[in-house]
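P.,

For your records, the input lines for the assembly:
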Amino acid sequence: MAYVGHVKRPKASLSAVVIKADGTRVDLGTIAGEGRNDPANLEKGKAGRERLDSMLAKEKKEAHHGG
Amino acid sequence: MAADVVYVVDNGLAITTDRLLDSPTHNPPKWVHWGTGTTAATAADTVLETPGAEARTEGTETQETVTTTNDTFQVVGTITCAGSGKAITEAGLFSHLTSTTGYLYLRATFDVINLNVGDSIQFTIKAQYTNPA
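Structure tokens returned:
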């Protein structure tokens, strides 16, 4: 039987890797869409964001002290 | 905090069917952009809420396999933060380098990613086409 009246959008996802100005890569995993809430992805995202926050705090401190 | 949402928007469906024509009017939706808007993505979106000043980046588009051979359209593109630091909370995929309304294929919103000048984000964006189930 053909499908009638059922519209389904493509399943979409967005992953992100932050590349710092010095070339350091920080993988945030899937940040929206399919796979976002998988436990392994949440763990990867949390670790990535903690690492990124640490880098930003260090950069802020260095900027405050004139590099 | 922005909601973690991603949609192939209504206009993205139109771009998809246009691309099936003999002479499509749209280019492939391969230009990646980002912004600082925090209103959750919806299917009705036609533009980014607060697009960044950086130019869109032409990503690399490929067919990928998630469930069925070549069922997924993927674009990988990188944008670099210029001018001043930014709190990135949205991203979009367009079928044109500069045009806005009518050219958005996909919009996503997500938790803030704070960047300093010179930092980049490499986005990998996927849209998997499946049969209704």
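Two observations worth noting. Chain A touches chain B at residues 3, 6-21, 28, 31-34, 36, 49, 52-53, 56, 59 (CB under 8 Å). The beta strands of chain A are 11-19, 25-33.

Regards
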